[in-house]
Amino acid sequence: xxxxxxxAVSNTGKIVILISCICIxxxxxxxxxxxxxxxxxxxxxxxxxxxxxxxxxxxxxRYIIRSIIIFISTxxxxxxxxxxxxxxxxxxxxxxxxxERVGIVMALFFSVFTLFLFIFRPSTFNAxxxxxxxxxxxxxxxxxxxxxxxxxxxxxxxxxxxxxxxTRLSLVLLSFAFFIMAMEEVSWFQRVLEIExxxxxxxxxxxxxxxxxxxxxxxEDLFYFGAFVFLVVFPFIRSLxxxxxxxxxxxxxxxxxxxxxxxxxxxxxxxxxxxxxFTQITFFGSLVILCAFAIFSSIRNERHIILFTxxxxxxxxxxxxxxxxxxxxxxxxTEYKEFLIPLAFFxxxxxxxxxxxxxxxxxxxxx
Length: 367
Description:
By secondary structure, the chain is mainly alpha-helical.
């Protein structure tokens, strides 16, 4: 069992959460008002554009103070959920080689390797992330793999799931979501099949046969923040509330804490989107959650792995922000972020498959 205690959020915690949310909303409102004042223009959906504006990282006094407020608000927001809870956290449920250990090591190795390339071989770093190269196709393969695993899980356990429609529906939705993301990543095989861009897609920002580039900035932010919630926040919540691990449905689909460690690594891959408030919330939030995991960890080696991940995330983000000249394209780093997120999804889908197998094996043994 991953947690032992369930305590409601105290009144003080609720007040802290409210104040944190007010601070974050105030920053968003201030960003909008200042951008409007500077541009002297209020056009349709301008407030949306100002929130999701991508640019070179800004380290002016105003933006440093802004980052400090976001940092403190994020700490207060997540720590207020912890309150007096002190769960015992175990990342890997078994001994020896396990999905948990292999998954974390793979993600950390990839992150260290890409950081090395970025600092010492920036040309290689940039080349790997170009269209139809290793990083893009790797992302797509991982998503197709996730789609296959969830589909296979449904097909293999279809009879056993006949009385659990919500589980079947969840597997269908996961498989569908992974398939759409994978196809969008490769523009529905447009370049492979040498298909000319249809007139329907003329408004596409990259003139490609996909949907996400009709509103690239907004969809990217939604995808990154959604991945943060699914892969990092949900595992954090699971570590705090025992009922999730004790519920037959939730313990299969709510990602376990080891997925949170893997998913947090992608939160450090920011450059052109650093000024966006949601990007900083995911970065600072991942650090707060990992610190909580390190405190809760009941196994020394696992605590060391979590602490190493924290150091790696901080180091990576600092080096990315400090060496912008190494990027060929302003958004280069997002290609690597879009590899790490599918990697976490792939490991998550394997974990879902394994837990489904264990669940039905236990039921058979009881019979």
